[in-house]
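Dear colleagues,

As part of the handover before I leave the project, I'm documenting each prediction I ran so the next person doesn't have to rerun anything. This entry is a single chain, and its sequence is reproduced below.
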Amino acid sequence: MSHQRRAMRRRVLASMGGLVAAAFAPPALSVPGSTRTTSPSARFEPFKLAALPPAALRRALEPLRGRAVLVNFWASWCEPCRIEMPALVSLDEAEPGIALVTVAVADRADDVRRFFDEHLLEPTVVADPEQVIARAWDVSYLPTTLLLDAAHQPQLRVRGELDWHHDSVRAHLRAFAAKRPTQA
């Protein structure tokens, strides 16, 4: 087979591989506006956890009793975490029924403080340098955000970055915050 024919064959096979990959791509990777693109609020998945929060997180949650809480596991060295943090803080300020607690996972206190100072943000921060809280709450991916009901029981989880400004996300959170916690 000539060099030219082999090159053409490689291009055709590569193109076919791209088409196959696009056909099986998850909705998050689909082209915006396509019929396979889902609402960002659909990324909330049910999440139950029987374990009590570790002491440091319990202390941060105590003043928020009676409110739904977003617990965002993040790190200053995690780019998707850095991108979504201003939107999370904005949501915390705009939605009185929902509070935000951030858990700085495997991060240095100086880096966390510098990030928030540079972005003029002031969320509640719980340090988790040894990943005690992350492990106890089965968080292995950053960012991960847990939505706790008013009794501070985890109900929903989002793994990965989310557009917290999106109308469907805000509506979903408002509806969740309006519900009364289920009794265990």
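The CA atoms of residues 164 and 170 lie 7 Å apart. The longest helix spans residues 3-23.

All the best with the project,
I.
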